[in-house]
């Protein structure tokens, strides 16, 4: 069961969990940036380490454990630690020994929804990769054509430059001939 949860929780970005008392816990971590994950994890672990939490009901610890599991395995976390996420899920299961059926169903529904969202995003990502490969091939073909055209243009430029030299020489020769003709007249 924990293996299933850890595999699905890694895609969790947003979830609403309904407990026995119908209160809502909202975990919204999709807006966190790279460095904010570390800060959020440190904050939650700091809360766990505080002495004033040790006499709190198990539900508060359970909430922190599940939040830490989500943070450590979140898809946007650039340095995920799935082993720690699993450890926190195990601690969560130990502390929440009386998980209500509604709570468990809500958690599983959220995880399944997020897993499906991840699958959809992965499919879109793979399609974009395929389009990118096709685009790269097209660009490569154009690059080859451009290089060929560039070589042709360079050859033509050399010919034009050579012809311009000849034209200048012919102009100079024409001027000399014109001057000699005027001298002879």
Tell me what you see in this structure:
By secondary structure, the chain is mainly α. The chain has a domain at 2-126. Helix content is 77%, strand content 5%. It is built from six helices and two strands, in the order H-E-E-H-H-H-H-H. It has helices spanning 2-9, 34-49, 51-54, 58-73, 82-95, 101-184, and strands spanning 14-18, 24-28. A two-stranded antiparallel ribbon has the order 1-2. Helix 1 crosses helix 5 (82-95). The protein is rod-shaped. The protein starts with a helix and ends with a helix. Residues 1-26 have low confidence and may be disordered.
List the helices and strands and how they pair.
Layout: H1 2-9, E1 14-18, E2 24-28, H2 34-49, H3 51-54, H4 58-73, H5 82-95, H6 101-184
Antiparallel strand pairs: 1-2
Helix pairs in contact: 1-5, 2-4, 4-5
Question: What attributes does this structure have?
Answer:
185 residues; mainly alpha; 2 strands
């Amino acid at each position: 069961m924990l293996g299933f949860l850890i595999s699905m929780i890694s895609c969790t970005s947003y979830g609403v969990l309904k407990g026995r008392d119908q209160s809502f816990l909202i975990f919204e971590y999709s807006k966190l940036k790279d460095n904010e994950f570390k800060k959020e994890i440190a904050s939650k672990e700091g809360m766990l380490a505080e002495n004033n939490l040790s006499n709190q009901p198990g539900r508060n610890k359970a909430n922190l454990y599940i939040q830490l599991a989500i943070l450590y395995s979140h898809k946007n976390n650039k340095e995920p630690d799935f082993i720690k996420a699993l450890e926190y899920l195990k601690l969560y299961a130990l502390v929440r020994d009386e998980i209500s059926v509604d709570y468990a169903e809500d958690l599983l529904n959220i995880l399944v929804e997020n897993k499906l969202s991840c699958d959809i995003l992965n499919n879109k990502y793979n399609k974009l990769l395929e389009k990118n490969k096709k685009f790269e091939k097209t660009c490569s073909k154009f690059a080859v054509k451009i290089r060929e055209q560039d070589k042709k243009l360079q050859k033509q430029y050399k010919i034009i430059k050579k012809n311009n030299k000849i034209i200048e020489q012919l102009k100079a020769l024409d001027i000399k001939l014109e001057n000699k003709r005027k001298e002879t007249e």
